[in-house]
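User: Quick sanity check before I run a bigger batch. Here is a single chain. Can you write out its predicted 3D structure?
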Amino acid sequence: MHLMVDALGYPVHFIITGGESADCTQAHALLKQCEQAVQDVIAEKGYDSNTVREGVMQQADEAIIPSKSNRKETIPHDKLLYAARHLVENTIGKLIHNRRLATRYDKTVSSFAAFVNLACIKMHLVN
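Assistant: Done. Predicted structure follows.
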């Protein structure tokens, strides 16, 4: 599950893919779904590629992505802003409280995505 959250940690968009797909392949699709202006994009090392950085810079002011260890020239990032990435991890943790998401009972992608939608709606309504 590839997830985009807002500044408060509420889920905005998600994409379901197989476990073998790379994170960086879904970054452009997530940003494309966002209709509002994006100020900063904070992502983990899995999204560190030149194509992702170029796509982010077209839609956002700044890309805060730490460089992978195998990158020839490290690209500096704001470590203070990168600390806010915990919002995504916390949101995934809250979604995983639903046993059905944690154990992935659903056999089809559409039924799993439907339940992720329900869990996200629940997060918005409860808080």
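DSSP finds six helices and four strands in the chain.

User: Great, the batch can go ahead then.
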